[in-house]
């Protein structure tokens, strides 16, 4: 979401300069308010924060974080527009995506679909339905967090948009039914009517287009809503995942790994991508975590299809009958895992 108001104007060059020169905010000391959220509901409606004024429909009497932890990502509410009426084509008819381009994918009730990061980078949320299940497909570029949630919640179907705000450099979404604010990385509502409650995550994959197509030739793929309006395929975060420090983040970072190294997260455990890459296939308990080459980084070069190869990680559970079942996991950055799990070490060796 970083400087996304500029992204809307395709200011890729300016953003690249900001990253490459490493202009950071608060690098010298962690933000004192960066604590873990709790389920304790408190009233923050009397906070002097401008959020209370600009979000009159949000119930600020129910908060599980301090508003001091929230910072602007650049645009305002819906400044990064979600896709609410997505359109698709058959995967076999797709002729724009390069084979190594990253996509978010899932199969639900026998239907498979892919959402390319070349599109999600510019929208961050797709309100969709697949296999009869209403879902929200989300991507936070600053955290490289690609997560799919069920939209059916508390007896209603929620539609999500972007608040324009961040916490731990992660996207804060809101639902248009109650205007509660949700942390994308955890799926937990932080502020509003649903504060303290969590959305249901679904086990999706972040993989290359060719890998998805090989697994699901009879599938569909998301298309840009208005192709001429945005530079789809361009990366407005040039060099971000090789920079020395995350943008719009002023929290503590892990000591044993670079902040923007990729890590694989399953529940409360995390392994560095380099560790999994060296193993090729790694077993822990009933989990099977594997890495194969062939997926471009969406946060490297100006053209996503030319991004360096970061490979694809698959996380599966081995059942009693030797069946492999996809498991909910994140392929995110080390600083993100540390921000949400400061007392848990990332396994690197």
Describe this structure in words.
The structure is a single chain. This protein has helices spanning 4-7, 12-20, 50-54, 117-123, 209-215, 273-279, 334-340, and strands at 71-72, 87-90, 102-108, 111-116, 125-130, 133-140, 145-150, 152-153, 156-157, 160-167, 170-175, 181-183, 188-191, 201-202, 205-208, 220-223, 262-266, 269-272, 281-284, 287-292, 312-318, 324-326, 330-333. It is α+β, with helices and mostly antiparallel strands and 349 residues long. The chain has a domain at 240-340. Strands 1-10-11-12-13 form a five-stranded antiparallel sheet, with no helix packed on it. Strand 17 (262-266) and strand 18 form a beta hairpin. It starts with a helix and ends in a 9-residue tail after the last helix.
**Annotation field: number of helices:** 7
Largest sheet: 5 strands, antiparallel
Unreliable spans: 1-36
Q: Would you tell me the overall average pLDDT? A: 90
Taking the alpha carbons of the first and last residues, their distance comes to 32 Å
Quick structural overview:
It contains 7 helices and 23 strands.
Which helices and strands appear, and what pairs or packs with what?
Blueprint: H1 4-7, H2 12-20, H3 50-54, E1 71-72, E2 87-90, E3 102-108, E4 111-116, H4 117-123, E5 125-130, E6 133-140, E7 145-150, E8 152-153, E9 156-157, E10 160-167, E11 170-175, E12 181-183, E13 188-191, E14 201-202, E15 205-208, H5 209-215, E16 220-223, E17 262-266, E18 269-272, H6 273-279, E19 281-284, E20 287-292, E21 312-318, E22 324-326, E23 330-333, H7 334-340
Parallel strand pairs: 4-16
Antiparallel strand pairs: 1-10, 2-16, 3-4, 3-15, 5-6, 6-7, 7-14, 8-9, 10-11, 11-12, 12-13, 17-18, 17-23, 19-20, 20-21, 21-22
């Amino acid at each position: 979401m970083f400087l996304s108001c500029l992204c809307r104007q395709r200011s890729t060059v300016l953003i690249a300069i900001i990253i490459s020169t490493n202009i950071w905010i608060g690098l010298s000391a962690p933000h004192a308010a960066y604590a873990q959220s709790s389920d304790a509901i408190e009233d923050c409606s009397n906070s002097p924060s401008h959020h209370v004024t600009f979000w009159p429909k949000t119930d600020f009497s129910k908060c599980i974080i301090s508003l001091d932890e929230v910072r602007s990502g650049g645009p305002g509410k819906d400044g990064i527009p979600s896709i609410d009426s997505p359109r698709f084509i058959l995967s076999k008819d797709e002729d724009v995506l390069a084979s190594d381009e990253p996509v978010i994918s899932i199969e639900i009730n026998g239907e498979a679909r892919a959402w390319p990061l070349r599109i999600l980078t510019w929208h961050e949320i797709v309100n969709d339905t697949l296999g009869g299940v209403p879902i929200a497909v989300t991507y936070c570029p600053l955290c490289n967090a690609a997560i799919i949630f069920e939209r059916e919640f508390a007896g209603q179907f929620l539609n999500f948009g972007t608040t324009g705000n961040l916490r731990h450099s992660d996207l804060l979404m809101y639902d248009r039914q109650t205007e509660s604010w949700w942390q994308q990385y955890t799926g937990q509502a932080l502020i509003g009517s649903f504060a303290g409650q969590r959305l249901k995550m679904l086990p999706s994959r972040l993989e290359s287009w060719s890998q998805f197509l090989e697994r699901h030739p009879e599938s569909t793929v998301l298309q840009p809503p208005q192709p001429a309006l945005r530079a789809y395929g361009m990366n407005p975060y040039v060099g971000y995942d090789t920079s020395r420090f995350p943008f719009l983040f002023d929290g503590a970072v892990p000591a044993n790994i670079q902040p923007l190294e990729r890590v694989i997260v399953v529940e409360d455990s995390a392994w560095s991508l380099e560790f999994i890459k060296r193993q090729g296939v790694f077993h822990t308990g009933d989990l099977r975590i594997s890495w194969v080459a062939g997926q471009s980084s969406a946060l490297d070069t100006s053209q996503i299809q030319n991004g360096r190869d970061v490979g694809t990680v698959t996380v599966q559970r081995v059942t009693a009958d030797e069946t492999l079942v996809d498991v909910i996991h994140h392929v995110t950055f080390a600083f993100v895992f540390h921000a949400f799990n400061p007392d848990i070490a990332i396994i690197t060796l």
